Fold these 4 entries.
Entry 1:
Amino acid sequence: MTASTLTRPAARPADLTPTVRFRTERRSPLATGVLLLGAVYCLLPVAWVLIAATKSSGELFSTFTFAPSTHLWSNIQELSAYRGGLFWRWMANTALYAGVGGLLSVTVSAMAGYGLAKFQFVGKKATFNIILAGVLVPGVILAIPQYLLLAEVGLTNTYWSVLLPSIISPYGIYLARIYAAASVPDDVIEAARTDGAKEWRIFTQIATPMMIPGLVTVFLFQFVAIWNNFMLPYIMLGNDRLFPITVGLSGLLNQGATQPAMYTAVITGALLSILPLVALFLTLQRYWQVDLAAGAVKA
């Protein structure tokens, strides 16, 4: 008769025992208050424009600032009737300048940024330093030289005089270079080259999907910059049918000195000019992703 012995399991090392750590979030009333003040500071002018656009020309200066009225639709109709719908021609021009200019700028920025991040060539560091220097130069300073250059080739007072200077964005190239270096792994590029892929295919089908969130940011920055640009089209254009919304509303504002009714048209036009920007931000925000390599899965 054999006696069975019970073996006691060995004790689990203390260092293998799972530990659960709870992370407590700290809330700062001061930081929350500062953010709320910043939000109010940014949104208060928008609220004023929205309310002022509902008032008639007589109510604009005689009623309480934040007291809304019921004349928004009539103000839009009057603005639309101005010189046979010239305002909507300005809106279309602005969409053309900002849309086409933004897309061309993103294309150039993506190719330049990818090349600076992933290729080695003579003068690479000097080229990047020149681009960084271009970020520090305000666009207003370049408006006059650009006008003189385009005047030499007869492109002033045309759509090209506003589109061509908008294609190159030093800040966009800088952002694209930083994002390409962070989001496009060198191992993926080398693997594609080993499989026989050409450089253009690697850029368009592998690198570009990985860079989409950064390129969307570049497009938004450039689109808003062109949409709000005043000095360049003001210098380049003489025909009011080529004006963007900024220059067109400035002309209406100048007429308000002799025709006070034009102030209502300017405010209504300013309200309508904000709506495309809001819609664009709401539409494109879904492309902002936390994972830098999320595009590799789609590729």
Entry 2:
Amino acid sequence: MINREIQKASADLWAKSLPHLSIDSVVFGFINNTLNVLILRMSGDDQWILPGGYINKNESIDDAAQRILFERSGAEKIFLNNFGVFGNLNRSEDYFADYPDDLWHKQRFITIGYYALVDHTKVTPVTDSYSDRCEWMPVYKLPKMVMDHEHIIGKALESLREHISYKPIGYNLLPETFTMPELQALYETILGQKLNRGNFYRKILRYNILIKLDELRKGGAHKAPNLYKFDEENYQKALNTNIW
């Protein structure tokens, strides 16, 4: 089905954007102990797509990724990690087979993959002129995705799992205060496996990235656990020095 908005955008993109390069972002959010990804449904289609876009001629790749995610979510200062480049032959052209050959989107595009970690409470999903829905979906129960976007999500998850073996995570995925079981649940959800509680607690505390607060999580049926928050300075040091 022809999307008229895509056709309208083509001439403008030829004028302002770099040809043959695109950005696709896998935006992860942790909601109700589930790792979710932000995706859009194309108007008049039952397939879903990653939030992505093109690089303006006057901006860097990282700036383009930040801009695209701000336009999609309104979130600023997002943690972004470049995790891969995807350029298989006909990875995108076939999706636009019904369109004229001079359509911008129908050209061969190599896409740069970023993953983002965000606090979902600070994100307002926004549709664009090409889409009619923008929603959080469980990363392990994805609907039908366009092109190679399911593959890109899988690679982003692999990269995130590798990341947490030598870098801390959680600052952008958890609320400002959290319990140790909540932090462990985040790690277990990403890794897809249970972790020994004692070993996990000792490892996390050894890296000195948490501040224990003088308050407890209220409202549970069991003994109220302590609340923590991240020590932002030490957290940033751990991100930058590979001491994890």
Entry 3:
Amino acid sequence: MIRQLRFRRTIAALTLAVAGAAVAAPTAQADEDGRVPQLLFYNHAYDVLDRQTADAVEHSAYLREFANFEVRTTTGGGITWTGRYLKGRETYLELFGVGDLPGSDGLFGAAGTALSSERAGDLAKVRQRLQNQGITPVDYRQTRDFGDGVPVPWFDTVRAAPAYQAFDGWAMEYLPEYFADPRSGTEPAATPDDVSRERYLPDGYQDHLMRDIAAIRIGVTPEDLAITVPLLTAGGFKVVTLADGSVIASGGGTTIRYDAVPREQAGLKQVVFTLNRSVPRHVEQIGQSNLVVGPGSTAVWTFTGTA
């Protein structure tokens, strides 16, 4: 997810031509060398699907061929959740069904994106960039229980606000204690400050089609979008606001489009995947969603479900 419930929780397909002006959001303050290095990268997104689609995802034989797919129950921070995961080399997708999470977090269209650092210490720089924008960061440390009742530090998070309506956007940085625990199944560090997504995720993607998430499109209320944009700019994404209030954030290999919508239209709309190899065209209907794989080395998953 990985969401903390206590907080209230081909790329062109997503960057469609939009009539009218587009406005670039202010970027983070440049470093001494004049550059604004990107500190955060798309890690994963989660979404609450309609029950029919969530169940179809969970039992899909094709998705188990398409991706390094897992249905996993996790306990962390005193909360337990069960998600459906499609894991790539550096990025992944986490899916729930209506009612899988308590309260408003389990309603159709509740969603979020996690943006993570690749080097230890970069989350602190993001925090400072938020403060430079006049924002008081909200900090939280997530732990994980591997079944023995002992919480293991998992990752630190920073948010730009203490509450949200239906969309939770946060920055995160994996912790040394988690990587050091052999039960995490993570890889050795490539460098002393390596807390990367590739180190965190397993290499099982190599045995499947899905390699990574190139683009993702999510409907977000204007209120939730307003507290998400500062985090994007602090992370070093190039952020463009469209005439209708929607936002496109690009950088680091994944483009994220946030459509400004009413709450009833919120939620995951589309995901574009890169593949490990070129394949013929294949169409898979999964509940109220449509996954088109190929032709070529991309796949597009479109969600049309309603509660």
Entry 4:
Amino acid sequence: MIQDEFKFYKPCKLLQPYVRYYWVFKSNQLLNTLTFPIGCTQIIFHKRTPLYIPELNTTQNRFTISGQVNFSSHLYAEENIEMIVVVFQPHAMSTFLNVPTSLFYNQEVSGYDIESKNLNELAARIFDCEDNSRCINHIEEWLLSQITDTLSDATYKTKRITAAIKQIYIAPATPVTELSSIACLSKKQFERLFNSLVGINPKEYTRIVRFQKALEQMQHQSGEINQAQIAYASGYADQSHFIREFKKFSGYTPTSLLKVSNPYSDLFTSPV
């Protein structure tokens, strides 16, 4: 009998600039968990029961593209869960899907709606394969096959946005005008390209990064947390700003979250 089982996989070296990691989850128990915005997009393959998201009043398709979100959400499934997930680097998913990531903002979209023959063929291979390690190999083969001249043509654009994202990770309070300067683009050009590749506007993305930095700070503190210290380290203007933003993205104040779950930063923690 399957119990809860989580397994992470590291992408091959060529794909690491585009994919953070893959994970597989199996369970035959009731799932009811709270998730937060992580700043990355995902492709999800459900081999068994898809997840229900009450905040969107939707059940994920067995083959789902999950965009950037700016809200916390609950994930429900009654039993018999088996899912494979590709977690992309923030800017990378549109490179493989050939559509702007902004189309998936705050949405769970069926991968079949993309109407991509080779993507549908990948999904068919995944659902026909019982060995999940082999499924990861299928995914890697497909991703590598997409690294073509089209990808090369887009490299200079992604490098501009990657440089800005690195700066956001270091200092989330960096103004958009400074980020656009780092990307060597006008503010309007930068915002348009960022939204297309990352799937959310730069200002809102920095808010998610700040929130994830705060989770990382809390993750590594034991006992009572120092909210003023976390606010400063995460790039918030002050403690009240930190508490207000934290509640916006998690549904809890920092201290009340500690009573219901252990803080964990998906963005600033590498499981592989």
